[in-house]
Every structure is written in structure tokens, then in C-alpha cells.
Specification:
Length: 403
């Protein structure tokens, strides 16, 4: 069975929609901005990748807005775009499409607001949706409900690798007979002091105040990553199903693998990331010469970056083009891996590797694409992702014309 992506949608610090996202990526824009005053004065983190000017009422029915958090809003908007883009008629058979959207932090802004009401005013001031709006599966549930989808639904909470892992799970769902799956990741962890506080304990966030240097992976000045918010969602189908309805295939999901590298901020030593990449490539049937670009995880911590570089050198002894466009807008937790997947799909389509912002020259012996986008013949892309706690995932995507 060959799994293909036929629809794609994004909400990112570049705005809503894949056109806005790709334009920002290919230009290498810096989209990091000061975190607005949400009672977070005194917090060491000063910058974030916020989705600009997002008004949920412009995109979502009011009855859904009032019972959900921003991470669900982003997932719903990205899902709507992915469904439109795919051209699939979900109303023809509501049971034919499942939903698997990931989150690493859930609806913390909604939750903080309701808990403040509980402690400050009493239980009668807590809304009925507190029990569900904060929950990690709320985005999956609301996407399913709002679109009338009744297929298999679920959620994964594997931090940044979420969408990569969800694509692996979705392959199994398609093999069992589900015709299509909406797969993605969404997080909005910048909207409340509580959300920021829960991130500080990891010790991996950049405290830099200059958008041009705060998140600079693979450099001597790397000092952590800047947190962000956003979402990306893809509609995936079996290739035979897509051909039968004459759908446009945007990319082929050729291989996925995940590992657990051990307890720690990130996989210590990088062996788990290396093994995930090797296995994903094996399952995709490609060797080092068959991968044309790597979308790096790019944590922005010296040790984690060095581990990733060591893994890349072992995987590609003759070199390979590497990029980390997320340096321009931050790591959006479960949204980060999802936005990297979307970036890889768009790169394969446009035959262009977007640059890595904030990195002036190729460091550490990597063929890192910097300064300007690089046109290239792209057949396959490898996406790497690590989550806080030691999880690793790798995904191979291929251009449909080269399969």
C-alpha cells in the first residue's frame, strides 16, 4: 500500500494558509516577536513565534469558538484548508475519514482562565467546557464534530514528533480499510503565563531578546530555541483511492520510524535519532544517495545540535543539503514537526530548499542551506524530529513523479 498526501493546510507565524507559509519560508523571513504582556513580566523568555492577527470568529462558527482553546482553533482552520485542498467529499460517507491530530500542551490558556475563576470566584463561575477544552484530544474531537467525520479518531502526545508518528499510525488505519485520514499537529503554548511557566522547567528555551540571534541552531551562539504556536494538517489516502477520484497527489509518505532514546531533555547522544532515520529510509527503500534534503530538528542547544550533526554525518558520509526553516519562527511543539512536514511537501512541489534564517554560513561541516533559497532537483526529503523526554521520529517524503 502506498500512502499519499492529497490535501494540506497550515496556520503559522506567517499567517493562515500554505501560500503565506511557503512565501515566508522561501524568503527566509524572521517572524519572531516579543511575547505580548499576558502577565508574564519577569519571565526569562522574551520572544515567541505568534500567529499574527488571528481572529477565530473569522474562520470558525461562534458555537465552536466559545468551547475551545486556540490550539483547537488552529487545528480546525488547518483541517478546513486541507479538506478543501484535497477535494474529497466527506459528506458522501462520514465514516470514510478519520482524524488524528496531535498536541503537546493542550488548551492551557482556556484551562488557566477557568481555574482562575474557580479559585477566585467559586465553582459556579467555571464553564461547562473546562472539562474538555484543555484536553489534548480536543482538537481531534472538534475537527471531527465540525466536519461531521465519523471515522477512527485519536490523539498522540509525543511532543514535536507528533505528526510524524501520527502518519505512521495512519498507515495502519488505511491498511485496515479506512479510506482517508486527517493527520496533523497543533499547539498554542504562548497565550498564558501558565503555558510559559510549564515550559521553563525544561531548560531548553532561549532567553535572547534579539530576533536575529535568539534561535540560531548549529552555531556557536546557539542558546536554546524560541517557542512558537501553529498547526499543520494533511489529508492522507491510499494511492489507489486517490487515483480513483483523480485527486492531485502532493507527496508520497514513503517511510516512517520512531525510537525512544532515553530519559533526558532530548535523546542523549543522538543514537535514537540516527536509528529512527536509518529505519525510515530502509522502509522507504532509499539509501543515502536517494535523499536530496534533510529538514533538521535543530534544537538550538550545542550538545543536541552536535548530536544531530554526528547522526547526519553517519547517515550521509558524502553530504546532503540540510535546512531548518523553523529557526525563523520558532518551535511550535506538536505544531513544529507538522509544519516541518508541510515545508518538506512544499519544497518537493516547488523544487526549492528554503534557507535556515539566522545562520550566516554553513557550520559544523554541514551543507546547511543559508541566506537564500536553493533550487534543486528534489526527489526525496527526510524530516527529523525530537521531543522533550527522549522521543525521536523520522519521515521520508517523496515527490510523486519520482516514485
Amino acid at each position: 500500500m502506498t500512502m499519499v498526501i492529497t490535501g494540506l493546510g497550515t496556520v503559522s507565524p506567517a499567517g493562515t494558509g500554505t501560500d503565506a507559509y511557503w512565501a515566508a519560508l522561501v524568503e527566509g523571513r524572521t517572524l519572531l516577536t516579543p511575547i505580548p504582556d499576558v502577565g508574564a513580566r519577569g519571565y526569562p523568555v522574551r520572544l515567541g513565534g505568534r500567529v499574527p492577527g488571528f481572529d477565530p470568529y473569522e474562520h470558525i462558527e461562534g458555537r465552536y469558538v466559545v468551547r475551545t482553546d486556540a490550539f483547537s482553533w488552529f487545528a480546525m482552520v488547518a483541517s478546513d484548508e486541507a479538506l478543501r485542498d484535497s477535494g474529497v467529499d466527506v459528506a458522501a460517507d462520514p465514516y470514510a475519514t478519520g482524524v488524528l491530530i496531535c498536541s503537546g500542551s493542550g488548551g492551557n490558556e482556556f484551562g488557566q482562565r477557568e481555574l482562575a475563576a474557580l479559585w477566585g470566584r467559586g465553582p459556579e463561575f467555571v464553564g461547562p467546557y473546562q472539562s474538555i477544552a484543555w484536553f489534548y484530544a480536543a482538537s481531534t474531537g472538534q475537527v471531527s464534530i465540525s466536519n461531521g467525520l465519523k471515522g477512527m479518531c485519536g490523539v498522540l502526545t509525543t511532543d514535536e514528533p507528533g505528526m510524524l508518528d501520527a502518519l505512521g499510525q495512519s498507515r495502519q488505519a488505511l491498511r485496515r480499510g479506512t479510506p482517508a485520514m486527517l493527520v496533523g499537529g497543533s499547539d498554542a503554548a504562548l497565550g498564558s503565563p501558565f503555558a510559559l511557566a510549564t515550559q521553563l522547567g525544561s531548560g531548553v528555551l532561549s532567553e535572547g531578546g534579539d530576533p536575529g540571534t535568539a534561535y540560531a541552531p548549529f552555531t556557536e551562539g546557539a542558546c536554546g530555541f524560541v517557542p512558537a504556536e501553529g498547526a499543520a494538517v494533511a489529508l492522507v489516502e491510499d494511492a489507489a483511492t486517490a487515483r480513483a477520484r483523480r485527486a492531485r497527489v502532493r507527496a508520497v509518505v514513503a517511510g516512517h520510524a520512531s525510537t525512544f532514546g532515553g530519559v533526558g531533555a532530548f535523546d542523549p547522544g543522538g543514537e535514537g535519532l540516527l536509528r529512527a532515520a536509518e529505519e525510515a529510509m530502509r522502509r522507504a527503500g532509499v539509501g543515502p544517495e536517494g535523499v536530496d534534503v534533510v529538514f533538521a530538528d535543530a534544537v538550538g542547544l550545542p550538545k543536541a545540535d552536535a548530536d544531530e550533526v554526528a547522526a547526519l554525518r553517519r547517515l550521509f558520509p558524502d553530504g546532503v543539503a540540510v535546512t531548518a526553516p523553523k529557526a525563523g519562527f520558532g518551535r511550535a511543539y506538536a505544531g513544529a514537526g507538522a509544519l516541518d512536514v508541510a515545508a518538506a511537501v512544499l519544497s518537493l512541489e516547488h523544487q526549492v530548499v528554503p534557507p535556515t534564517p539566522h545562520v550566516p554560513d554553513a557550520p559544523l561541516g554541514l551543507d546547511l542551506v543559508t541566506r537564500v533559497a536553493r533550487p534543486a532537483r528534489l526527489r526525496s526529503a527526510l524530516v527529523l524530529s525530537r521531543g522533550v523526554g527522549g522521543g525521536n521520529s523520522a519521515l521520508v517524503l517523496q515527490h510523486p513523479d519520482h516514485v
